[in-house]
Design brief:
Length: 76
């Protein structure tokens, strides 16, 4: 049998700064009411949930669910 070597070249390495920019772009796409300044000021998921509740006048549980779906384990 031939050993299988994982192909790591197909997995691009993304810096934390690039990952944050991608996440902020995803947040902006989902919730277009945020300015670049507001996006840059976000501290964590709870802060994002609070801002969404205030801007979109939706239930906190719904906002939390929406944020969890967009974040998928990523950090701000």
């Amino acid at each position: 049998m031939n050993p299988v070597t994982p192909n790591t070249a197909s997995s691009p390495v993304v810096s934390s700064a690039e990952a944050k920019q991608i996440l902020l772009k995803d947040i902006s796409s989902k919730w277009g009411k945020f300015s670049e300044q507001e996006l840059g000021a976000l501290k964590n998921k709870d802060d994002l949930v609070t801002q969404i509740v205030a801007k979109d006048s939706i239930d906190k549980a719904q906002a939390q669910s929406d944020v969890d779906a967009v974040m998928k384990g990523r950090q701000i």
